[in-house]
Amino acid sequence: MDELHHRPQIVWHDHAVSREDRQRVLGQRGCVIWFTGLSGCGKSTIANALDQQLLERGAKTFLLDGDNIRHGLCAPPDRLAADHGDSFAKRFGLGFGPEDREENIRRIGSVAQLFAAAGLITLSAFVSPYTRDRQRVRELVEGSGQAGDFIEVFVDTPLEICEQRDPKGLYKKARAGEIPNFTGISDPYEPPPHPEIHLAAGDGRTPPQLAEQILNELQHRGIFSVS
Ligand SMILES: Nc1ncnc2c1ncn2[C@@H]1O[C@H](COP(=O)(O)OS(=O)(=O)O)[C@@H](OP(=O)(O)O)[C@H]1O
Ligand SMILES: Nc1ncnc2c1ncn2[C@@H]1O[C@H](COP(=O)(O)OP(=O)(O)O)[C@@H](O)[C@H]1O
């Protein structure tokens, strides 16, 4: 029990159905596969390819993807203002400053932890540039489960390649000074010191090939087994 669970006004309620019960029914252990890397490094494409490969093998999965989450759970202020007003939008809308990214990853981490506790193999694809924010999610996920439930995948594509790809034209705008705090250009990216999986993702391999490397590592770690 942590500090929150002791607060008299917020009482923790144990569930009638345990995580173990859920996992027994699903025939798998829930976990979080956390992709991190620069914009354009391939997080979303590789995570989608892995999601597909897992599904084809009968795994129960869910993918939390950066752009989609920033349309809802972590929407920017201008998206919230119309329905909720300016003060609300200013308070809860998220941009890309360090604290906003911290809150973005905290919210997503909390959702990922819930999906893992529901027994799903949960994939997430966010830049998540700060080591401390990722470490907090690791602690949250493993604290409510067990060591090994958080698998960090560093999609290590050199900045030059990400910038060449520039599928959304954001690097061009960032170089022109039109987007402030752009990761890799005017904002830091802290590479994971000890990722469970380090993908050299700019070496000419296709996203499905890279996803297969991850799949093999997951099987090796006992996260997923082909029956
Ligand atoms: N300033 C800045 N820095 C980095 N990225 C930016 C920025 N502004 C917009 N974008 C677009 O938003 C996507 C990153 O959102 P994330 O939620 O993954 O970011 S973070 O984890 O909170 O750092 C990222 O998507 P991906 O390219 O899919 O990574 C960008 O398209
Ligand atoms: N291994 C790869 N080889 C070649 N192109 C790739 C590879 N991985 C991703 N891409 C391409 O790079 C672009 C950015 O990929 P994306 O998955 O959107 O990156 P991110 O989610 O990290 O921003 C897309 O156009 C995608 O098709």
Automatic annotation (TrEMBL):
The active site is at residue 128. InterPro entries: APS (IPR002891), APS_kinase_dom (IPR059117), P-loop_NTPase (IPR027417), Sulf_AdTrans/APS_kinase (IPR050512). It catalyses: adenosine 5'-phosphosulfate + ATP = 3'-phosphoadenylyl sulfate + ADP + H(+). It comes from Roseimaritima ulvae. It comes from the Bacteria. Catalyzes the synthesis of activated sulfate. Keywords: ATP-binding, Kinase, Nucleotide-binding, Phosphoprotein, Transferase. Coiled coil: none annotated. This is Adenylyl-sulfate kinase.
